[in-house]
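Give me the fold.
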Amino acid sequence: MLRRMLAVFALTAAALTTPTAAQADTRFHGEGDDVVRIHTTKKPGLLRLTHRGESNFIVHTVDPRGKPGELLVNEIGPYDGTVLYNDYGAKGTSGLAIRADGAWTATFMPLGRARCWCAATIRGRGDQVLKLSPTRGLRTMRAAHSGEANFIVHAYTRPGSYSDLLVNEIGRYKGKVLLPTGTRLVTVHADGPWTLTRS
């Protein structure tokens, strides 16, 4: 009976440290270069990253083989943004490799915590992940960006699936593009203020 109780306790403890639990607003912090370990997961999720340094801030996922995976952030100076990890083609995530010259934070969050693109127009700054009700029929997106570096927008019909590249420009941008049918997730990579309007 005691062995059975110990076995149940061990299984319960293991369940509390599964990747799903680790994605539920698990926050890491540090200063300078570091490697963060998590329980391996192949499930797409969100990662909010901040950096209070002046030089390079580079973050890669680390795959289960211990090799660099997705390049999540490559910026200079202060940073505050939310990105998607375990994107299409990823081999899973077992940790993060961080290069920084200042204090940083990394918070793992479930996809459900993505910012809601509920109204027709949404405004933001920097990297963000947006969720919306799946689009139907002919839909368009008008986009504007007033930053100086890359402005990249992807659309996903399913998390972890192949994405549609909607915009890929450098600097200021204004344009109107198709929003693919079934889009339910949009990622924005930007260094400045942006506006997205769907119709």
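The longest strand covers residues 68-76.
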